[in-house]
Specification:
The protein is of the alpha/beta class and 337 residues long. The protein is 38% helix and 14% strand. Helix 5 packs antiparallel against helix 6.
């Protein structure tokens, strides 16, 4: 007679079943490693850690910028000019030509290059991963691509509201780098000096602004790239109907004679970019000689690099204002015949 199979009590049988299933799952799947944290795509700019940054509004939107950024690369000479006077050091720049008050940045060992103002070195930036990149003016067209790599703010100025944007750009940089007190003093001093200058320029005759380049001339009026002389410094325009465009209106010596300004303000682009300069030769002709500006010795050659390349920085604006103040205080003598 066969012995009936041994049966386990129901509770014990259930417990054994649970253990068997658990062992099977363990040996089949193995212990799980913690899931890796997501890695940002190669083209995405890393955002500062939560609570470690602030949102900064700028000319092309807004950007979350780390508190007290240390590694900063600048692609705009006007922004570099403002940072310099605020006492903010930078770790990288663009281009090779740093005139006037920016001469110290020509030291490539101390200030590594990250491309040019028009074409950044994206690979170098991606490798360096600075805390902040600053664009503006000539580099503003590259903002979107740069912003995909590293937090970027744009400091482009508005020609139609030049003084307001220069002040706003200064205050923005001051807020980013904790230089609010320095910015406040700079802005207050600038406003006071401009008020004083306008009290002089309003009654001293009309002015015309021309830029020379490669033997050609273009004229600028209010609201234009160099319209700060009219809009902010209060110099009445000799040609108020000039269109406000980036490159001005092409003109010749005949236009200067017809306009007959009391003051002729000249920007020599060739001298500004380090390619000699021919403005004085170009304007030294019989037609220009007949103008009031020439006869009264009021042809003013504006500091070329400061006006053409660096314009838009608060230090640059101050220097331009001081040059205008000086020539109005001491009018030039007529050139020798």
């Amino acid at each position: 007679m066969s012995t009936p199979p041994r049966r386990f009590p129901p509770l014990l049988a259930a417990l054994i079943g649970v253990v068997v299933i658990a062992l099977a799952v363990f040996f089949w799947w193995g212990p799980r490693a913690p899931a890796p944290e997501p890695v940002p795509s190669e083209g995405a700019a890393p955002a500062p850690a939560p609570g470690a940054g602030r949102t900064i509004a700028h000319a092309q939107g807004s950007t979350v910028v780390a508190e007290h950024p240390k590694q900063v690369v600048v692609f705009d000479l006007a922004a570099l000019d403002t940072l310099d006077v605020l006492g903010v050091d930078v770790q990288g720049v663009a281009g090779e030509y740093f005139p006037g008050q920016l001469a110290k940045y020509a030291d490539a060992k101390k200030y590594p290059r990250y491309g040019t103002l028009f074409e950044p070195d994206y690979e170098a930036l991606h490798a360096a991963r600075p805390d902040l990149v600053i664009t503006g003016g000539r580099s503003s067209a590259r903002y979107t691509k740069l912003a995909a790599i590293v937090p970027t703010i744009d400091q482009t100025t508005d020609d139609a509201h030049f003084l307001d944007t220069v002040v706003g750009n200064t205050q923005r940089l001051a807020a980013v780098f904790g230089k609010e007190e320095q910015a406040r003093a700079l802005v207050e001093s600038l406003h006071q000096s401009i008020t004083t200058l306008k009290g002089t320029t309003a009654s001293r005759g009309k002015g015309l602004i021309v830029l020379t380049s490669g033997g050609r001339m273009s004229a600028y009026g209010p609201g234009s790239r160099f319209g700060v002389l009219h809009d902010t410094f209060g110099i009445p325009p000799a040609a108020p109907s000039l269109k406000a465009s980036l490159h001005g209106e092409a003109v010749g010596s005949e236009f200067i004679l017809e306009t007959n300004p009391d003051w002729l303000f000249v920007i020599d682009r060739d001298a500004a970019i380090g390619e000699g300069g021919g403005a004085q030769r170009l304007l030294d002709n019989e037609l220009v000689h007949q103008t009031t500006a020439w006869k009264q010795g009021q042809v003013v050659y504006l500091e070329p690099a400061n006006t053409y390349l660096i314009g838009g920085g608060i230090q640059s604006l101050r220097r331009l204002m001081e040059q205008i103040s000086d020539v109005y205080a001491k009018p030039r003598q007529p050139p020798a015949p």
